[in-house]
Amino acid sequence: MIQSLKIQNLILISEAEIPFGPGLNILTGETGAGKSAVLAAIALICGERADSQLIRQGSERAVVEAVCGEKIIRRELYRSGKSRCFIDDEQVSLTELRQSMGSLVEQIDQKSSRALAEPEEQRKMLDRFAGLSERAELLAQALSTERAQEDELRVLLEKAPTQARELRFLRADLEAIEEVNWVPGEEVALEEELGRLVHSKELAEKLGQVVGALEEPTLKRLTSTLEQCCRFDPKLKSAAEILKSCSLELTEVSSDLASYLSRLDADPGRLQVVEARLHVIESLRRRLGPLKKDDLTLQIAHWESLEGEIERLRTTVEKKKQENQLLAEALFEERTKAAPLFSKQVLSELHSLNLPHAQFQILVQLNTITYLFSANPGHTPIPLQECASGGELSRVLLAVKTILSEKELARCLVFDEIDSNVGGHTATILGEKLQRLSQKAQVICITHFVQVARFAASHFLVAKKEAVTSVTKLDDPLKELEYERMLGIEKKTATLHNDAG
Description:
Strand 14 (458-465) and strand 15 (468-473) form a beta hairpin. 57% of the residues lie in helices and 17% in strands. By secondary structure, the protein is an alpha/beta fold. It is elongated and about 120 Å long. The strands form three sheets. A six-stranded antiparallel sheet has the order 2-1-4-5-6-7. Strands 8-12-13-3-14-15 form a six-stranded mixed sheet, sandwiched between helices. The chain has helices at residues 35-45, 94-101, 110-116, 119-130, 133-159, 163-179, 186-198, 200-213, 216-229, 237-264, 270-288, 293-304, 306-352, 384-387, 390-404, 424-437, 450-453, 476-487, 493-500, and strands at 2-10, 13-18, 24-28, 61-68, 71-78, 83-87, 90-92, 105-108, 359-364, 369-374, 382-383, 412-416, 442-446, 458-465, 468-473. The protein contains 19 helices and 15 strands. Among the domains are: 2-109 and 408-500, Rossmann fold (3-Layer(aba) Sandwich); 185-291, no CATH class.
């Protein structure tokens, strides 16, 4: 239930707060007064994509806030195109907002009436009536899995003719790697060694200088001299101990460097060996690309197991098909049982909606549901989408919504001119139906019919004055003035609209 709706800078509305109540809430007003702004605001709190063109001219931001039960929903639209969503002041994604509001508010308009003519929507409505929605969703998921498995099998079958050729190429590549006894990362170590060998002469010269400077007698002499100085000033003792420790470490460094120098020219032919090995590896890389022996091994294993994988997947697909067939047949039986009762109830509602000669049937097939309809006596019912006018579709939709109201989760139904394309007497019947429906869920409805408006528990006037739209809740005397306007009686109505605007 939408308890209140605040709107700022949306279309023609500068600022409005609408205190919707339980039961039937009616919105009326002249064409172009701005009723669409209220519907746009409701759509935004339900997760409709934002459009910066909805922002009132001259404003940089529009805000819509609704109290829905224990939740406070807020949408902010910015001229830059940015939009933000909040639930209880915590920012959420658009998807999260839709999920949160999906079961609370349902918007029904001419688009909904047209959607009713679609077989998929007809199937969903029958399933909701019969309590089969969850089973239908499970079947849909199972069929999706089946299609994915079939796609995977098709890919493998397309690969099969090239199996022998791919294996020949892959095995040849693996043999080439194994022939040169290549080890992953080997070329990195070889490149480092090549650098040392190419610069061995310069290395030997510079390291010789370092070793010469770190001669042990020199370090001992410096340490001894500083220790002698300590006899004259004990404060130098700490420095002497540090120098002694450093001289020991430097002696070790000198020894390591001398050992390195002795090995530097131990194998004069090593440079040629390293260069030749790098050449072999580079030639292999140019032929095969990045060298990945493990990847080749895995690819070979995949291609070698292809026939077995195809057979395994064939078995899996066949099993899934059989399971899904059983699920579909069981669902078909349940739908077949529910269809006559649903048809009977819809037909009863249609007769009460001033379609006394209406015929309504549901054709249940294994994979499709089709609503058959005729509004005229003596005419065989045919698919709804082929015969119903806009007004008839609206009434069929209202009939179905009335029946499903106890089974659906929505706590608020928003109707946009569901009474379009109907006559005056039918409008009275529609008003009665909406009032009945509002006893089970909150109903918000835009109408141009007094016959419908008179059933309102709360009546709001949407009026425009000097390009600014206002929304006013009407008390009983003002309701009567609005009824006069709706009936074309101009007396006194100017006062009402001037006050509202």
